[in-house]
Design goal:
The chain has 3 helices and 7 strands, in the order H-H-H-E-E-E-E-E-E-E. By secondary structure, it is of the alpha/beta class. Strand 6 and strand 7 (about 130-135) form a beta hairpin. The relative contact order is 0.15.
Length: about 140
């Protein structure tokens, strides 16, 4: 039993040292230094012109903006800010049509996987519209 244990310890040590000779950074750092990996970050201008999620608020009477441009595969979130009135929306994009009233702070979110122009209207006031252009 002692011979097997010594043989195993010798094999393990020789394998470790062989690996250390082939990959010398392993002994120096243990692992790759991830602090030197650079992940490119979008510039502030790029973040403003092409955000991942565009947020629009609805106060019960009007949208915070009436026209927006959204990039393909980005998201739109419409948030109800009215504590007394529910948000009911209809749209030519089914994901933005509400099946129920959304209360204060509730939001509907959709990802745009097709290009085109989409319109969202308030069911209670159809003249209040949000026009979305997906580029």
């Amino acid at each position: 039993m002692k011979k097997k244990l010594l043989l195993f310890a010798f094999a393990f040590a020789s394998g470790f040292l062989t690996h250390a000779l082939v990959f010398p950074d392993f002994l120096a750092n243990g692992f790759t230094d991830v602090s030197k990996i650079v992940i490119p970050q979008p510039s502030p201008e790029q973040k403003q012109t092409d955000p991942l999620i565009t947020q629009i608020t609805f106060d019960g009477k009007k949208f915070s903006r009436h026209t927006i441009r959204v990039s393909f595969s980005r998201y739109l979130e419409i948030i109800n800010t009215n504590p007394k009135q529910q948000m009911w929306l209809i749209s030519n994009l089914p994901e933005l049509t509400t099946e129920r009233g959304y209360g204060e702070s509730e939001a509907i979110k959709a990802q745009f996987n097709e290009k085109g122009t989409f319109v969202v209207q308030d069911k209670n006031n159809p003249s209040e519209r949000l026009v979305i252009t997906v580029k």
